[in-house]
Each structure stands twice: as C-alpha cells, then as structure tokens.
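Figure 3 (text version): structure tokens given as input.
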C-alpha cells in the first residue's frame, strides 16, 4: 500500500472526511496521484474552523460602527477638480497606474455557462463585458497617450477559457504585452453538513476564494513584483461586471495623492435601505464595509435629521491602492465569509447529485476586509448613472437589461 495513500487515509479519518476516497478505486494511477495530492494540500483545520463559523450569527456588538467621511465628486469646485485632475493626469501619463480586473467569480446569479467577462451584451452592438472594459482603456490611451497595464485575475475554473477568448478576439486590439492574466487561489466547497465535496469526476470540488484573494494571488503570481519593476504606483482594482466602471480615474488619483492616503474607494448612494450592496463605514475607527447580508435592519434603516440613510455609501468594488500598501496587504490573511451556492457533486456513495437550489458552502474572502488594516482611506462619491451599471442577475435588478439601459443613457449624454 502506498505511503501517501495511507497518510491521506489517516488525515481523512481524523477529520471525518473519508468519503473523499469514494471514487479512488475507479481511477487510473495518474488520477489517483492527482486526488491524493489535492487532499494533501487541503488545510483541514482551516476548513473546519471556517465551517464552524457558519453556525455563528454575525453581530457588530463588539465593534464600534460609525459613518465614514466621504467626498462628493460633484461638490468639488471647478478649481479643486482641475487641480486634482492634473495631479492624476500626470501620474497616468507617466505610466504610474495599472488596472486589475477581478474576473475569477463564478457568476452563478447570471446563470451563464462560461467566464462572466465573455458574456455578450447587446448595447447597440453585440459586445462582451471584457471588450467593454478594454474600450475604456483604449479611450484612456487616446486621452493620455499611454496603454495602461491591464491585469486580469481568473480562476482555475475559467483561466483557460478566458485566455482563449482574448486570443480569439485578438486582444480587442489592445497590445498583447500590456494584458496579463493571473490565477487566484481556491478552497474546497463543503456540504451544509461540513463534508468537503467531490466534483462529478470524483476530484475535490474547489471554488475560487473570493475577490479578497486578489492580494495574495498578486503576490504569489509575481504580479506585484512585476508592477514594482514597471514603477507602478497606483493600482485600480475592480470587478468585471460593472459596464460603466471608470478604471483610469485622474480625480481619484489626485484625491489620494493630495490627502496622502494610500488607498481610495468610490461609492454611490444606496437607492434604498434594502438594496443588496455593502456600505462603507468606520469599524473601530478603521475604514470598513458592512456586507448587505451582514447589516442589521436597524443599522440599514438608520436615518439622519434630514431623513437620509446614514449608512448609504455603497461599496461598488472600485478601489485603488498604492503599491506600497499592496505589498503589506498581500501578506496579511483575510477572514473568510460564507456563501451558500448550488453545487453538483459526487456523494458518499459515488452517485452524482444535481442540485437546483443552494446546497453547499463556498468560502470567500472579501477585498474590503483589507480596508481595516489601513490607517485611512479616501472615499469619493460618484454618480450612479456615471459609474455603476452592474450585471449580476439574469433578470430584474442589476441584470443585463438594466445595465444596458444605464450604459446607453450614459453614452447618449456624452
Ligand atoms: P460577485 O461577488 O458579484 O460574484 O463578484 P460573481 O462570481 O461575479 O457572481 P455570483 O455571486 O456567483 O453570482 C464581484 C466581482 O468579483 C469577482 C467577480 O468575477 C466579479 O468581477 N470575483 C468574485 C473574483 O474575481 N473571484 C471570486 O472568487 C469572486
């Protein structure tokens, strides 16, 4: 009996995960080796810890939550804005900005079979999310005379298809050497009873470890080092699914520089207390975000004297970090949050289970958990109709239909 197999068996027994070998005897030698390696690399203590947290209710009783100051872009005077913009313009022209697009998510709500960035929208022309973002960078080239480095974070699940999509589309005419891909980390998915899941082929069912995984993977993949070599100072990090995202933002850079702040984020006003967005706040005097799934109704509905929501600065996943700060953040471990997702898997009898409702936990770290390690952060409020048109759900709010409408209205105003 092979030694590795025995070691794996002992570990699995200790953690009550023996079912992971259910398909072992049906596998080729190569497949057996792959499965044993996958299991050996799992941090079972970590999985146990995160799973146990699914039983805890999150409360903020022990933290002091307060509203955070923000600067409304539309309140800046003409002179102020020009001054900030010129600081930003200079940095961009000198090639000090890089853009990271996080495209490693599963896009389950959209229900599209393929990397979300390859989803096609019909905005007067048929165009993919990736191409919409690329067009923004091409516009920036026209304005600043420079091709900004574009880093795309993928997951093991969609890396191959993403790269192939770019290749097939000739990188949307952006210089190939200015586009780089890197793969984010992943963690096993777990059943609601705490059993690690196997995929339909009997291997471990991994899922990407959340957008907070961006920092660690930038470090591990060498992206951070490369940025340093290229003398990058500011890194804009955003999602793949906001088709009005403004990634090359001179005002934001100007603000962060002038306030001597090493991080900045953009917000839009929450439409109503129930909107499913996280909101910026101060948690124990540090910048933070409370997720929509974690905020209590009381806090979400709290109003000021003017009757306006106090916690209303929506986090729209448009953040920018100074490279010096990224080096520190990338070495810190972020906490994991729990999401219930639909998962097809091989059960403990070796049978395939197809699910049409959430039946498994996915563990994710969130980018904004890194904010609490910052001394301060500039929050710039922008207009929703200018910068926020997310594609999240197949139908209804934040769907292709609503995003296309916002997009077309924005370009009709231009
Ligand atoms: P969301 O949290 O909206 O998730 O991601 P999603 O994967 O796109 O969709 P659902 O929740 O499964 O329906 C916001 C952004 O963060 C990226 C996504 O690709 C999207 O651009 N993301 C999310 C990652 O890059 N990796 C992750 O592990 C999670």
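Below: residues designed for each position.
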């Amino acid at each position: 009996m092979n030694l590795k197999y025995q070691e794996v068996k002992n570990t699995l027994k200790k953690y009550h995960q023996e079912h992971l070998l259910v398909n072992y005897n049906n596998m080729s030698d190569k497949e057996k080796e792959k499965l044993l390696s996958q299991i050996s690399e799992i941090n079972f203590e970590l999985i146990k810890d995160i799973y146990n947290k699914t039983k805890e209710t999150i409360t903020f009783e022990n933290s002091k939550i307060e509203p955070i100051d923000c600067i409304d872009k539309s309140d800046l005077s003409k002179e102020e804005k020009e001054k900030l913009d010129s600081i930003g313009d200079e940095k961009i022209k000198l090639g000090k900005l890089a853009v990271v697009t996080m495209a490693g998510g599963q896009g389950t709500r959209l229900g599209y079979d393929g990397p979300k960035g390859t989803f096609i929208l019909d905005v007067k022309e048929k165009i993919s999310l990736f191409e919409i973002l690329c067009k923004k960078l091409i516009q920036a080239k026209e304005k600043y005379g420079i091709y900004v480095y574009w880093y795309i974070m993928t997951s093991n699940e969609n890396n191959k298809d993403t790269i192939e999509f770019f290749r097939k589309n000739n990188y949307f005419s952006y210089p190939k050497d200015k586009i780089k891909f890197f793969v984010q980390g992943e963690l096993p998915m777990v059943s609601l009873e705490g059993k690690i899941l196997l995929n339909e082929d009997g291997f471990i069912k991994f899922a990407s470890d959340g957008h907070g995984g961006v920092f660690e993977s930038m470090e591990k993949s060498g992206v951070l080092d490369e940025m340093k070599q290229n003398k990058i100072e500011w890194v804009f990090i955003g999602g793949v699914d906001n088709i009005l995202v403004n990634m090359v933002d001179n005002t934001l850079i100007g603000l962060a520089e002038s306030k001597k702040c090493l991080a900045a984020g953009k917000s839009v006003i929450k439409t109503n207390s129930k909107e499913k967005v996280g909101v910026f706040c101060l948690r124990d005097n540090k910048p933070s975000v409370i997720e929509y799934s974690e905020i209590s109704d009381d806090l979400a509905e709290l109003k000021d004297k003017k009757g306006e929501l106090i916690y209303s600065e929506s986090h729209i996943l448009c953040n920018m970090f100074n490279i010096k700060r990224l080096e520190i953040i990338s070495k810190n471990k972020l906490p994991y949050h729990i999401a219930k997702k639909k998962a097809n898997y091989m059960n403990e009898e070796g049978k395939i289970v197809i699910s049409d409702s959430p039946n498994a936990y996915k563990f994710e770290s969130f980018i904004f958990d890194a904010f609490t390690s910052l001394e301060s952060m500039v929050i710039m409020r922008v207009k929703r109709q200018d910068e926020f048109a997310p594609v999240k759900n197949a139908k209804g709010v934040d769907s292709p239909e609503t995003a296309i409408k916002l997009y077309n209205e924005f370009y009709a105003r231009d």
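The mean pLDDT is 95.
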